[in-house]
Amino acid sequence: RQKLKILSKAEPLLGNIQDISHQVWFFQDQTLTAVPRKNCMVPVTVTLISCKCPETLEKDKGNPIYLGLKEPELCLFCEKVKDQPTLQLKEQNIMDLYYENEPVKPFLFYHSQSGRTSTFESVAFPGWFIAVCSQGGCPVIVTQDVGKTYITDFVWSVLY
């Protein structure tokens, strides 16, 4: 039997994210992209931690979480660029977001799981989901075009 690891303090989960066609998130040239998994490639380690004050957010949307990258230390957030919600990366310690007294909505995503797959919906821009293009080699974005041009279903694999 496996023992559950008890954490004495809040710590983000570390893992990898891939889409349902086995493209992994990869960080290169200051851009987060989705690329087909290859043997010699190391996918970026993603950090994930729940918001500590979810009661201020909508119910039944999923677990409000912050998402970041371990190396380099960046966090994902959404902001409007030319009237369009856009996924951005910012040099930010994910634990600083966690310890804020109020949810930092631009950095929050609703993590919703269905079976093995997860979706990540922007809290700041409801109806906009983290997505990748189906052919690969494209930046990770946010879209409201769910299930058409872009893939919004991901598999989150925890690293031990």
Automatic annotation (TrEMBL):
Belongs to the IL-1 family. Keywords: Secreted. It is found in: Secreted. It holds the Pfam family IL1. This is Interleukin-1. The gene is IL36A. The lineage of its organism: Eukaryota, Metazoa, Chordata, Craniata, Vertebrata. It comes from Loxodonta africana. GO terms for biological process: cellular response to lipopolysaccharide; cytokine-mediated signaling pathway; inflammatory response to antigenic stimulus; positive regulation of gene expression. InterPro entries: IL-1_fam, IL-1RA/IL-36, IL1/FGF. GO terms for molecular function: cytokine activity; interleukin-1 receptor binding.
